[in-house]
Amino acid sequence: MATNSTQPATSASRAREISILLGVWLALAVALLWLGGTTATKLGFNYDEAIFAGLAKDFTTGEVHGYHMPGSGTVNLWNRPFPVWNQPYLGSVKSWQLIPLFTFFEPSAFIARMSNLSWTLVGLLFFMLWVRKLFGLAEAVAGALLIATDPAFFYSSLLDWGAFVPSFVCRCAGFFFVLLAWRSQKCRYAFLAGVALGFGFFNKVDFVVVLFAATTATVIAYAKPALNFLRAQPKLVALAALGFVVGAGPMMVMSLQMFFFAAAHNAPVNPGEFSEKLHTLTAMYDGSYFFRMLAAGGLFDKMQLLAPPVWTPLGLVLAIAIFILLWQIVRAPAGDARRVQIFLLTALTLATLGVFLLPRAIRIYHAILAMPFAHLIIAVVVVGAWRKFSEAGNKKSFARGAVVFIFAALLATQIFALAKTEQLIFKTHGRGWWSDAQDKFAATVKDRADLTLVSLDWGFHESLLFLTDKPMLIEPFWKLTGTDPALLPQNTNYVFLVHPPEYSLSPFGATYLDFARQNPRAKISDWRDREGKIVFYTVQFTAP
Fold first, then answer.
1. How many CA atoms does the CB half-sphere of 527 hold within 13 Å?
2. pLDDT tens digits, residue range 272-301?
3. Which of 303, 331, 424, 531 has the most CB atoms around it within 10 Å of its CB?
4. Are 304 and 279 in contact (CB under 8 A)?
């Protein structure tokens, strides 16, 4: 792959570059961890976040007081339930990442979110090491600044409810080790590359989009060198394949079963899926996705109706950078520099197209599968323009200033979008499915072994499994459609949880709430967010 002419030629210069790289990474890590620490406790612990954290908590504490979501699975390890599957298409890599901190600290939403962010910063370090090897220090620093200040990156890392964190770590580590194996032709790097990419696939099946995009882009850009490498280094290829099998594990078998299941059932694609994916993509690139989502209380169908006060030109700058890169590819002679440009453009195009073709891949944790290619393209073009105008001497000082201004302005708009989203979080402490009202309720019943908490809608059970220790928890709403509410227990130790219509996904919740309102023994309590809006109800019966 490409070797940049600006790469250091001496051990001293290499050490200096590594020191600068680590210094920049450390500064970004401190800044993001500080921001994450001030935010982590302000939002309620979402159901989908809790799916990962709950399985990790079960293993570290050795105590299980309820069943997890259908499709999850564990194995017995040291007489504790070690998580293997979170769902049939979702391995437990993210739960594994939470286990170290949960071992040394009491499991909490704060620790879970800070663990997520810490692991993503490991991925950012791998990204910087990869880009430095591929291009140079300047591109690595510029790319890291773009990614670290992107609201999509920060909030996907901190509030990770879609297994973005392990995916990002695995793809960046995989790219880095692939490059090392390509250049050094050492077996250990080939094996580590396979393991990293295999873990990414085991983490979640949609990682196949990243694998397909990067592999196809490599074949297109490096067809002849790649073929020569395959012929000359079969041992390295075999070790990489072995590493992938080790990392991917049972997901290789499970993914085939899911494919045949989907083919047999031929599940129809939602006709409105394309427009929703397009909105997700644009909201990701303009920095407004998480502001919209949190302002709408997690109601994705209402996000598009909002007019948020944040906007970044990341998507616009990306479009310009793509045009410039295409122009450079057309004009550039054949060589490594041209090949790596083709690789980046092809990888971004295929990853984005793959998300649109992947059925039901409609959330930001799907769209963000294209990271880090978009940010890297911008960084490469910006640094390339700076170098070009610098070589021209003082005559191009205005152009150099314009490049710096555009890049700084882009970073400033992303930081502003972060600040405005933070203001929303601090003002509301979350709305709807992200409200901290449920966390407050959990604190009142955390140690009540005499209670049974019954979730009559989505959004309660997994969060309460994680946030409480003693109550019995059950989640029967999946099977209650058409059931007579009077058939459910009316014991005084049962607490039923129901959403208001706005946040309800199960029709049974409204049916049960109507029944409770007509029952003189039913005590209905409403739990409100910081703005006074009802987030959910609890129903508990008094003694006859």
1. 24
2. 799 999 999 999 999 999 999 999 999 999
3. 303
4. yes
